[in-house]
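Batch job 17 of 40 flagged for manual review because the log was empty.
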Amino acid sequence: MTFIVKKDPNLDKKAALAAAKAKAAAPAPAAITKYVKPEETKDRTRIVFDDSGSMTSQIENAKTGVTEYMRNCIPNQTAVSVHFLCTNSEDSANLEQLSTDLPAQSTALTTIQLNLGGTPLFKRMNEVVNMPLTTRMVVFTDGSPTDQIITVKDWNDGRSTLDRYKENADVIITQAVERKIPIDTVFFGSERMENEIALLKYFSERTGGIFLHFDPVKVNFAKAFKYLAPVYRKMLQSPSFKAELEAGKHN
């Protein structure tokens, strides 16, 4: 008699998740006394951080999420910088410099005082995509862009809000594609924000990045954002894992 053993289709996903969690939970390595230069690293990620007024109730979760992202980066293999939409200070200028000293970056992010304002997303992304050494951008926002790169001469020309968003996005996307910079995006808000969700998907799909939708009712940003870190990123290529993450099953 022949027995046919069927492979559990979830085994690979479960094994990958277990391996990533084990790696993240492993004892912290001894303190590094020398950090390499950013240009010597494999991953040089610039994070665009939404510090708009609508993020007020989630700012601490956002800070924690980004510091968890950095904590899950392998020492001396990743350099990270953080770029705010509104805050402009000596402290924010320091955070904008790519650094491999991620514990110091995390401390600076945790303690910085933010000046919450509008959502000049296009302008900020356009500045960041042109910064040197970048290999990846990660962008998160909870609202609608309040700025534009392309000046609109006639607001009554029949085009939709999403069409106008994409026209501005194309300026950034063209530069990202030319420089081979994938843009990962996270929309942190309700599924009713259809134009904003579509815009962030557009950025990621056109540049080869990853899009995630974190509904604050379901997902704890402080715990979920880390999955964009290099040690976890491949897991997001699994549609089932990505769906579980967006459903809040990995908080």
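Reviewer: the log was empty due to a logging misconfiguration, but the result itself is present. The chain has a mean pLDDT of 90. Unflagging and moving on to job 18.
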